[in-house]
Write a structure and sequence with these properties.
With 371 residues, this protein is mainly beta. The chain contains 1 helix and 29 strands. One of its GO terms (biological process) is cell wall organization.
Length: 371
Amino acid sequence: MDSRHLCMSFFILFFLVLANEAFQDAFANSCNVTGGRSQIVVPRGAYMVKSAVFNGPCKGWIEFRVEGTIKAPAGLVSDDDWVAFRHFDGLAITGKGTFHGFGESAWNFNNCEKNPKCRRLPISIQLDFVNNSVVSGINSLNSKYFHVKIHQSHRIKIDGVHIIAPEDSPNTDGIHIGNSENIRILNSIIATGDDCVSMGPGSKDIWVHNVTCGPGHGISIGSLGKYDNEADVNGIKVQNCTLSGTNYGLRIKTWASDIQLSAYNITYDNVIIDNAYNPIFIDQQYCPFDGCDQSAKPSSVQIKDVWFKNIRGSSKSQLAVTLQCSRKYPCNNINFWNINLLYHGPEGSVNATCMNVRGSASGIEKPASCI
C-alpha cells in the first residue's frame, strides 16, 4: 500500500509494570480508525503483560510493531492464551522485538502424558479467524506451550521470524497450523523442544520455504485421526529447508483410530537433513503416551500422493526411512526421487523399512528403497 494513502495513527506505549491496559487502550483507538493503516508501537525496553486478547474486526489495517521485549508472567497462569488476535482482516505483527514466554517457570506443570486432567499451558501468540495478514521479523523465546498457533485463518505469511526454546522443553511447537488455508512460512529459524512446524487437521495449501529447523522434532503433519470431524490435509509443500540435530526430520503421524480423513498432495523437495534420528518417518501408529495398545486397530487415515525429492544429508540412526502405514488404508502413491541419506554408525549400512506402502523410487537410492 502506498504511504500516501495510509492513515497512520501512532500510539507509543510506555509501560511501567503491567502493560495490559495500555495495550487495550491503544488498540481501541487504532481499531476505530477508518481505512488505511493504524500502528501500535512497543518501543525498546521490557514490559510485563499478563494476558492480552485483541478482538476485531477493525475498520482498517492494524500493525503491531514490537521493538522491545514483551514478558509473560512467570509460573502457572490461568489464561489459555497469552497474546491472542481474533477476527481480523488485515493484521501485521512486525518488528525486531521479542515475545518472552518464560516457559522455564512452567514446563514442570506440563504433565499431560501422565495426567489426563492436566490443563493446557498458554500459547504465546494465537491467531484465530485472521485473514490477509503477516507476521514478520519478530522473536519468540521460551513459550510455555506453542509459540505460534494459527487456527481458522486464511492467507497468512510468516516471514523472517526467530523462534527458540531448549531442546528438552515440552510441547513448545514453533508454529502450529490447524483448519487454515494458504499459509506461508518463509526465511525463518526455529529451534524448539517439539515440532518446528506442525500441520494439523484442516491444513490446506501450506508452503514452508527456507526454514532452518533444529533442535526439535522436525517438520510434521499431524497428528491426525484423534478427534471426530477432522478435516483433510491437502496441498503441503516443504521446500529448500534445513533440519539439523532433530529427533525426526520429515514426519507424518496419525493415530490408530476409526476417525476417517485423508492427507494427500504432499511434496518435500530439496531438503537437507543433518544428523536426525528419523529423517523420513510415516507413523500411522502414533502414540506419545505410555500404555497405548498400538495393535488394537489400524489407522483410518488415508495417506496418498506424497513426493520426497532431493532429500540429502545424514541419519543419526541406521534406519533413515521408516514407512509404517495402516493395514486398513495402506499408503498409496508414495514416491521417492534422489534420496541420499548417509549413516556412519557402528551398526552397518543405512536402511529403510516399509509396511503397507505402495509407490515408486528412482534416482539415487540411499538407503535402498523398500517400496
